[in-house]
Amino acid sequence: MRDKSFPPSAHGLTREQFLATAPRRSDFATPLLTLDAGAMVHNVARMADWAQEAGVLLAPHGKTTMAPALWRQLLDPRPRGAGAWGLTLATAWQAQVGRAHDVRRILIANEVVDPVGLRWIADELAAHPDVEILSWADGVDVVRAMEAGLGADVRRPLAVMVELGGAGGRTGARDRAAALAVAEAIAASPVLQLAGVGGYEGALAHDAGDAAIARVDAYLDELAAVHRAIGEAGLYPEGARPVVTAGGSAYFDRVGAVLPALCPDADVVVRSGAFQIHDDGFYAGISPMGRTIGDVPFRSAMHVWARVLSHPEPGLALLDCGRRDASFDEGLPVAQRIAGRASDDVVLAGSRVTALNDQHLFLRLGDDVVASGAAERLAVGDVVRLGLSHPCTVLDKWRLIPVVADADAPDPVVVDAVETVF
What we know:
- This protein is of the alpha/beta class.
- Helix content is 29%, strand content 21%.
- The chain has 11 helices and 17 strands.
- Strands 1, 10, 11, 12, 13, 14, 15, 16 and 17 form a 9-stranded mixed beta sheet that branches.
- Strand 5 (132-137), helix 6 (140-150) and strand 6 (158-163) form a beta-alpha-beta unit.
- InterPro entries: D-amino_acid_metab_enzyme, D-ser_dehydrat-like_dom, D-ser_dehydrat-like_sf, PLP-binding_barrel.
- It is an enzyme of class 4 (lyase).
């Protein structure tokens, strides 16, 4: 074990051998990303409870973690796991990782037109009758590219969903007429099979204001209308139960409120991926859990622990964490506590992270803290726990991540280590 920030005492040991030594957070070098086992159990249970109450199925987006051990927590039956219907992934290569870890139902929330990826899907489906792999198409040209990439020798048609988008969004047919044309092309294809309708409402809104929610609801209404129009046109295979899917991690409450009632003849699948890890930034502010769904929010399960390297001027501390260790695309880290010194957390009141370099974090202490002289209590060598934003761009920086029993403990015990496959 020679992964980032693991101690030299782990070198030459297997994961099991090292964990048997009962290591603590303080045994690791800094910077260090940890995951909180208790927070993940809490988050998965909250989401599974909501899905059951809302009448939707879960296919959490595995690209968030690309960690097969964490995928298993989502796929395992309740109460041990979330009992998810399947797993969402973004590319054919990610789907290959999923199949290598025995994921049997995969929704590729993307267009797949790469011939290498298409042939792999066709071969996988032919070899494993119990496996389902669904992908998307948002144009007749996509359907034609898929047919060309597959060729005529396909033993089992590929399940393809019509992707509906919106003006200013990402991929996706831009109106109902275009979506129906895609459905007709899929239904007529000898190598594809029409499986449903999907899309991503998160591309159309970025806050929880009334205008954003109205845009999301209007989009979901149109998604349901496309599904109904396809059914009325007789394009779905006879006897098949279509899938209607939406729901990132910001607006899944709207999916549960809108789509089941409008699509009673379909399986409504929510693809939220960030809930398992959650964060102390973007998703903490926008997630409906605890805001519109009950009063118990998700908990952030990820933290980076960074050490003070320098006090080059009053009120400024440089920590050994940078862009190669923490996310910065949806907000900079937030200093939360000084490790092992909970009574001294007042030192961090009013502090803010102002910049990240490759290997340095700039932490500005609050003016009141500097004026009182308390800033001196954050000394070179102290370790600061940082809250982060956007798990998708944190975990991809770490190949092996320690899992602690409780990140709020004075010196958390490490109980597992999760491998990522990015």
